[in-house]
Amino acid sequence: MRTENIRNFCIIAHIDHGKSTLADRLLQITHTVSERELQEQMLDSMDLEREKGVTIKASAVRMFHESENGETYELNLIDTPGHVDFGYEVSRALKACEGALLVVDASQGVEAQTLANLYLAMEQDLEIIPVINKIDLISARPDEVAQELEDLIGIDALDIPLVSAKDGINVDAVLDSVIEQVPAPTGDPNEPLQALIFDSHYDAYKGVIAYVRVINGRMKKREVLTLMSTNIETDPLEIGVFSPGMVPVEILEAGEVGYVATGLKAVQECRVGDTLTSVRQPADSALPGFSPLKPMVFAGVYPAEADDYNWLRDALEKLQLNDAALMYQPETSQALGFGFRCGFLGLFHMEIIQERLEREYDLDLVFTAPSVEYQVSLVAGEEIVIDSPADLPDPNIIAEIREPWVEINVITPTDYIGTIMDLVTRRRGQFKDQEYLDRRRVQLSYLIPLTEILVDFYNELKARTRGYASLDYHFHEYRPADMVKLDLLVAGQAVDALSIIIHTDQTYPKGQKLVSKMKEVIPRQQFDVAIQAAVGKRVISRANVKALRKNVLAKCYGGDVTRKRKLLEKQKKGKKRMKMIGSVEVPQEAFMAVLRLEDE
Questions:
Q1: Domains in the chain: how many in total?
Q2: Residues 15 and 161 in one domain
């Protein structure tokens, strides 16, 4: 295929705006997939992707379409992940394209992640083709949304295709727009090979399959390749294209999209954003933009049954084969036994990993409260990074603690500005700016500590705005903060898995909530159990779980009072002795309770 007849494009959208459904219709119209093989969300291979209506893993497919002038065009569609947690993968997928279809729901209009992905595409200097989807809905308002898009990106509202991907209405116009407006790839096939890796997955027989876009040069079968960031060499087992299944080919030319079966055994060796080149005639430099994936959220993962530890380790190893962003290392807790400290790209990534572990590997797990990575400067001048409350040094040797701040963008109807401002300011947020998108909707920007939006911020935002607000966030900077470790003591023993790092201003209210919650979930024993919240040696809140008492006076139906007193004293001594040797079993609900402290 001549380079002039190749079009590389992607589809970007907010969650559930019809991106995968539009991809299905494009596959159907171009006869890439037969009617018999076609299924809903064809490019989404995981059950979780289908259920949540969001693409988790990028995919690619090659289609052929004959235009009105009779020429056949090769269209390479790259389906990008649809959540903010996978922003780096989205940016690499965009780098492999020359154009982007911006899909907007005709009833909901422009939302937070629509803007986030649009700005990413504009940074990569892509040709933006807006598409208004779901015009078949009763609540659709295509003319208003078209005007929104015209104000946003300056494209005439009358030129924006109005489609229904579900019913196949006007989808042909989208293909014509791609052919007419997306530029052909630029790249010299005679230059040394430079191929961008925009995604990868693990295959049990072929090793790591790298999804590549050939920028310059040619990639030939059985040609030894090297990864430019790690200098790892690989002799590919095969190269090919997605149609949508993997179809081997002899050569991939400049401008084409395909895959390389590298034979490597770990996804970490073949990272997203890296550059593949030939060992025989290597390129002078790697393609720009590569950076290692960095986890933002950390949590302890423990098996509910200690015997399942080996099963959990095997499950994490298998998941990591397909997800290079998942980091884990063994850790031990006095309360929960042996487990792993895992790092995730964000909260959604953590939720996906948790569901996959429980569904695909049938594991019953306990997740500790999520934490973030803190930078700690010690008095001695040393700099350390911690992601677990257990690792926080003694306060006497700490000079400064810095916590990560993020910038959040909330798009909401104007009616809810007040309640959103209240929510953010209560969580130490700082107002940045606001911008009215139209008469009814506004975009609010705030700076807020990442730890404040970890657990239930999104749920509360949705509750306060009746589900109308949408949220997007990205890392901003580290800032000094007055943080302390809040410990929970049960019967005088600190339960390490229930420790949290919080701001000094929140110690008393959070400590009281934590103690009250623990009093509800820790079962009564044969003796009084003291539950305390403490910062260092200072106890800031306490509650007692009353003992289960046997009525030893039941058999006394009369007689002298000294007889009753003697029985009560005997019981009291027994309780005291039991308290010295008794141990309290902390139930699993206690660890989940930490995540729900704000629900009160």
A1: 5
A2: yes
Whether the CB-CB separation of 279 and 226 falls below 8 Å is answered with yes
Residue 244: cis peptide before it, omega within 30 degrees of 0: yes
If one counts every other C-beta atom within 10 angstroms of the C-beta of residue 294, the result is: 12
Asked if residue 283 belongs to a domain, the reply is no
Phi and psi angles of residue 238, each rounded to the nearest 5 degrees, phi first: -165, 160
Contact between residue 382 and residue 392 where contact means Cβ atoms under 8 Å apart: no
Q: Give yes or no: residues 454 and 510 share one domain.
A: no
Q: Say if 188 falls within a structural domain.
A: no
Residue in this structure with the two tokens 């850790």, named with its chain if needed: 331
The last residue of a domain, from among 430, 459, 481: 481
In CATH, what number is assigned to the domain containing residue 332? Answer: 3.30.70.870
Q: What is the CA radius of gyration of the chain?
A: 29
Give φ, ψ of 418 to 5 degrees: -60, -45
**Cβ neighbours of residue 527 under 8 Å, at least 6 residues apart?**
547, 575, 576, 578, 579, 582
Tokens matching residue 95: 């780098």
Check whether residue 578 and residue 491 sit in a common domain.
Answer: yes
Q: Nearest CA to 90 among 19, 179, 194, 186? A: 19
| Residue 335 within a domain | yes
- Residue 376: phi and psi, rounded to 5, are -120, 125
Domain that residue 526 falls in? 484-599
Are 75 and 165 members of one domain? yes
pLDDT tens per residue across all 600 residues of the chain: 678 888 899 888 877 777 778 888 888 888 877 665 555 554 544 454 445 555 555 578 888 888 777 788 888 888 776 555 566 677 777 888 889 888 888 888 887 777 777 877 888 888 988 998 888 888 888 888 888 888 888 888 888 888 888 888 888 888 888 888 888 888 888 888 889 888 888 888 888 888 888 988 888 888 888 888 888 888 888 898 888 788 888 888 888 889 999 888 877 778 888 888 888 888 888 888 777 777 888 888 888 788 888 999 988 888 887 777 788 889 887 767 888 989 888 777 888 888 888 888 888 888 877 888 898 999 888 889 888 888 888 888 888 999 999 998 888 888 889 999 999 998 889 999 988 877 778 889 999 998 888 777 877 888 888 777 878 788 888 999 898 888 888 877 777 777 888 888 888 888 888 888 888 777 777 667 788 888 888 888 888 887 766 666 667 766 677 877 777 787 677 666 555 444 566 666 666 566 555 444
Which DSSP state fits 280? S
Intra-chain end-to-end CA distance of the chain, in Å: 62
**Which residue among 153, 181, 209 closes a domain?**
181
In a domain, 189, yes or no: no
Q: Which SS3 state, helix, strand or coil, does residue 78 take?
A: strand
Let me know whether 512 and 432 are in one domain: no
Rounded Cα–Cα distance for residues 307 and 162 (Å): 56
Helix, strand, or coil here: 491? coil
Task: Let me know whether 24 and 146 are in one domain.
Answer: yes
212 and 107 in contact (C-beta within 8 Å)? no
Q: What is the pTM of this model?
A: 0.72
| Whether residue 352 sits in one domain with residue 402 | no
Residues 6+ apart with CB under 8 A from 431: 421, 424, 425, 444, 445, 446
In angstroms, the Cα distances linking 149 to 94, 114, 130, 365 are 20, 11, 8, 45
3-state secondary structure 230-270: CCCEECCCEEEEECCCEEEECEECCCCEEEEECCCCCHHHC
Q: Are 499 and 582 contained in the same domain? A: yes
CATH number of the domain residue 260 falls in: 2.40.30.10
